[in-house]
Amino acid sequence: MSSSDGSIERRLRALVGPDGQMTTDDDGTPNVAPSTATGCALVLRTASAEGWRVRIVGNGSWIPPDAPAELTLSSRGLGQVEDVHAADLVATVQSGVDQHALREALADRGTWWPVDAPGDRRSVGSLVATATAGPLRSGFGNIRDHLLGLTIVTADGHILNYGGRVAKNVAGFDLTKLATGSFGAFGFISSVHLRLRPIPRADATLTTNDRRDALLGQGQAILDAGITPSALELLSPVAGSTDDWTLGVRLIGSDATVEAERAAVAAACTARWTSLSSRNAADFWRDVQQRATQHATTIRVGCVITGLRQAINLVLHHLDDATITASIGAGVVRWSGSASAARLQLLRRTAAQVEMPVTIERAPWPLRNELGHFGLCREGVNRLMGSLRHTFDPQSTLTVALAGRQ
C-alpha cells in the first residue's frame, strides 16, 4: 500500500473520522490516529480484510514506528482523561494520554497514579502494552497492580471491554493480564481503567555514593530492617552522572511515616545520606526516567532480590556499563545502550540458565525481529502464545515480534 495512492488515503481518512489524525511516517507509511475506539476498530477491520499489515505505536517516543507494515495505528488521537472518580480512587483514560498530562490531570483532583516508567512523555497505552515500570515498582508494585481493566480492539476489529466500573469478561480471558506486557500482539489498547491513590503529603529522597557492592549491601540492609521504601534504586556512574555508583531512596506517605522511615534508614545503614530538596529530588527521578531513552536499545532483566549482584555482573560481562539501573526492592535490572543481536542473545541464553528472563523493552526493528521481546519460550508456552495470537489476530495483521527468529 502506498501513501501516494489517493484512493487509499481517502479511504483511511473516512475510517479515521473527522476528529482523527492522519500523517505519514519517515518511511512513507500512512500513520492514522483515530479519536475513538470505534475508529480504531474500523481501521483494523479493514486492514484485516484487505491483508494490510499494521504496526501499533503510542506517541512514538518509546518503540519507533519501524516494523515492516502498510499502515501505522497510533494512539495520538486518544488523548482524553475521560473520567476521574476521586472518592473511589479510580479513573478511565484514553491510551494516548502521556504520563505528564495524566499526572497533572489527576493532581487537580487530589489523586495520583504511582507509576514512573522510563520515558517521561510516554503514553499510558505504551506503559501497559510493554509492562514498563520505574523505581516506584519497589514500593507500589508493577503495572498490573494499578489497573482495573481496559478496552482493547482486536486485529479483526472487535472491541472488547474488561474491568473498570462495569466489569465484563470476554471469552473467558482476563484481557487486562493478557494485554499488559504483550507489546500489542493481541490488539490495540484504546482506554485503560486505573487504580489511583491519594496524593501523598510527604515525599523525601535520600542519596549516597559508593562502590556498587557496598551500595547493594546498604540496600539489602534497608530491606532486612523491615523498611519498604517507595523506591530503592541503584544507578551506575553513567546513569547517575557521577564518578561512582548512586543509591537513591524515596520515602512517600504521611509526614509521620516518612520521618519514621528516614530515621530507620539512617539507623539501618552506615552510609552518609544526602537529603535532596523537593526540586532536586524531582530532577533526580526525572533524569532516571529520561536516561533510558538516550540509547536505541533498552532491556530489563528479572531476578530474585538476592540475585541482583549476579544479574548486574552478567550485564556488565556481556554488554557494557552504558546506563544501568537496578530496583533493589523489586529485583529488576534495566540496561540501555547499543549492542549487537549476537551479544544480547548470548546474555539472554546465559541468564536463562540461572532463571533470569531478559526482555527487550525497546530496540530498532531488525534487533526486535531477530531476538523477539521475550525470546524463544518453552515449547508449551510457544504453542499457547501462538494459539492466543491466532484468536485475537486470525489474519496475522499485527506486526509484533514476541519470540524472534532465534
Plain-language structure description:
- With 406 residues, the chain is of the alpha+beta class.
- The chain has 3 domains: 1-199 and 376-406, Uridine Diphospho-n-acetylenolpyruvylglucosamine Reductase, domain 3 (2-Layer Sandwich); 202-291, Alpha-Beta Plaits (2-Layer Sandwich), CATH 3.30.70; 297-371, Alpha-Beta Plaits, CATH 3.30.70.
- It has 14 helices and 19 strands.
- The strands form 4 sheets. It has an 8-stranded antiparallel sheet, with helices on both faces. Strands 5-6-10-8-9 form a 5-stranded antiparallel sheet. A 4-stranded mixed sheet has the order 1-2-4-3, with helices on one face.
- β1 (21-24) and β2 form a beta hairpin.
- α11 (308-318) packs antiparallel against α12 (341-353).
- The chain is globular.
- Mean pLDDT is 90; it is low at 166-172.
Give the structure's gist in a few sentences:
By secondary structure, the protein is of the alpha+beta class.
- How is the CATH topology of the largest domain named? Uridine Diphospho-n-acetylenolpyruvylglucosamine Reductase, domain 3
Main sheet?
8 strands, antiparallel
Helix/strand-derived category reads: alpha+beta
The overall strand count is 19
Strand content: 15-25%
Helical segment tally? 14
> Given the C-alpha coordinates, what overall shape results?
globular
Could you name the CATH class of the largest domain? Alpha Beta
Percent helix range? 25-40%
Unreliable stretches (pLDDT < 50, length at least 5) are 166-172
Please state the CA-atom Rg, rounded to the nearest Å. Answer: 22 Å
Tell me the distance between the termini: 29 Å
Strands in their spatial order, largest beta sheet: 15-12-14-13-17-18-16-19
CATH architectural category of the largest domain: 2-Layer Sandwich
> Which whole number gives the mean pLDDT?
90
Number of domains: 3
